[in-house]
């Protein structure tokens, strides 16, 4: 099918008093494989109308992965990549030993909405069970936020109380966040190649959902890192250090909450600007605490310093989400922003 960025301009005409029609130039239609009797679909995308050819079952996206020469981790990586790329059927073919089969099953179980559909001596087929119309990127993002920030809070508490068991439990929850992130990645990738896929919703594009989810996934990674400290720390820190770490962790999480709320609910841009300003203060306070830890010469000072660094990164991820919200606000036509009065 030919690609041409030059627009084809046609006038909408009224036919028979009750039907609008748009004619297509014969040469252009032929270059797009459109002929008399062809069925086309028209989609509304904000200020755009998108015309596409009707899709059939043959358009169902699939991927075939040849197992030969690939070790189990490589197979698992390819299965996950095919899922994120939007494939609805993933077929792995070749001689599959026990380790390969386990890796494929683990990869599939770590993804949302896909199951093993068929398995033979030399083939494993996984198919998605997702109904795109039932997916809500906003709800997925909110669930990511809830899980991520709960992990973050419990990880810091585990460090401050020396609770290694909670630390191990928090680390395992990172897989839950990765599954949700993979789902949002998948819908973003599919929206790039399939116009029938929802382009986002709630005033946001699929890219903006992906960008926000990416920041939450990074927060979860740092929560996992903090939880790892809980398993290694030798003694609980002094009371003043505990108080400061608790306060900074709470402030960093609050920045993320406020930023995500501003993005999803299209808050006043000044609210999002305040997140950026408050983050600068949190980072300054965290850096001051890091210097204090060095001067105190604590046995676990280095480990506590890594916790402080993760708190700083969490605040910065909140800023990234807030900046995305500001960019969305600027996209609105005839946007006018005034300085917030104090």
Number of H- or I-type helical stretches:
9
The low-confidence parts are none
Question: Which CATH C-level class of the largest domain is it?
Answer: Mainly Alpha
Give the CATH architecture of the largest domain: Up-down Bundle
Order of helices and strands: EEHEEEHEHEEHHEEHHHH
User: Structural class per helix/strand content?
Assistant: alpha+beta
Q: In CATH terms, what is the fold-level topology of the largest domain? A: Methane Monooxygenase Hydroxylase, Chain G, domain 1
General description of the model:
This protein has 342 residues and is an alpha+beta fold. The protein has three domains: 13-56; 59-128, Translation Initiation Factor IF3; 134-331, Up-down Bundle (Methane Monooxygenase Hydroxylase, Chain G, domain 1). The protein has nine helices and ten strands. The protein has helices at 26-31, 72-84, 98-109, 137-161, 164-193, 206-232, 239-265, 269-296, 301-331; strands at 13-15, 19-21, 40-45, 48-53, 62-66, 89-93, 114-119, 123-128, 200-201, 204-205. The strands form four sheets. A four-stranded mixed beta sheet has the order 5-6-8-7, with helices on one face. A two-stranded antiparallel ribbon has the order 1-2. Strand 3 and strand 4 (48-53) form a beta hairpin. Helix 5 runs antiparallel to helix 6 (206-232). The radius of gyration is 25 Å and the shape is flat. The termini are far apart.
